[in-house]
From TrEMBL:
<dbReference type="InterPro" id="IPR036265">
    <property type="entry name" value="HIT-like_sf"/>
</dbReference>
<feature type="domain" description="HIT">
    <location>
        <begin position="1"/>
        <end position="99"/>
    </location>
</feature>
<protein>
    <recommendedName>
        <fullName>HIT domain-containing protein</fullName>
    </recommendedName>
</protein>
<feature type="short sequence motif" description="Histidine triad motif">
    <location>
        <begin position="84"/>
        <end position="88"/>
    </location>
</feature>
<dbReference type="InterPro" id="IPR011146">
    <property type="entry name" value="HIT-like"/>
</dbReference>
<dbReference type="Pfam" id="PF01230">
    <property type="entry name" value="HIT"/>
</dbReference>
<dbReference type="GO" id="GO:0003824">
    <property type="term" value="F:catalytic activity"/>
</dbReference>
């Protein structure tokens, strides 16, 4: 794994793992990571990986819906910075959402998301989000 997400592991499957993303400017943002070391491109996923990916995404969609009630979801499989098969799962919110006494505002709702690299995410916030998701996955 090019990046070390291990402390943010939410759930593991046979072929995929779900991690809470380090930058939590979008409440509930997760990374879905293919466990196969040589996996690079989404279209190279094996039939088993493909099938399980859709199960993982459905499970994550349901869990995020229960915990945070987003208005929309974005799925992004880019690979520009990290050359490994993984996707970003980004909940989107039409109105500000408060969680753990932090107000999350999706200023680009209805448009492409953009990571706010200045957003400071505490270890406590990540642990709280991870625990909430673990409880429903």
């Amino acid at each position: 794994m090019a990046e070390d997400f291990s402390r943010n592991l939410v759930k593991g499957y046979k072929h995929w793992e779900i991690y809470v993303h380090e930058n939590h400017g979008y409440l509930g943002r997760c990374v879905v990571w293919c466990k196969r070391e040589d996996a690079l491109d989404l279209t190279d996923a094996t039939p088993e990986e493909q099938a399980e990916l859709f199960l993982v995404l459905r499970n994550l969609r349901e869990a995020i819906g229960k915990v945070f009630q987003p208005d929309w979801l974005n799925y992004s499989f880019l690979g520009n910075e990290t050359r490994h098969l993984h996707g970003h799962f980004i909940p989107r919110y039409a109105k500000p959402k408060t969680f753990s006494n932090i107000v999350f505002e999706d200023k680009l709702y209805g448009h492409n998301y953009k990571t706010d690299r200045s957003f400071k995410t505490s270890a406590e916030l990540l642990a709280e989000v991870k625990d909430k998701l673990k409880s429903v996955l």
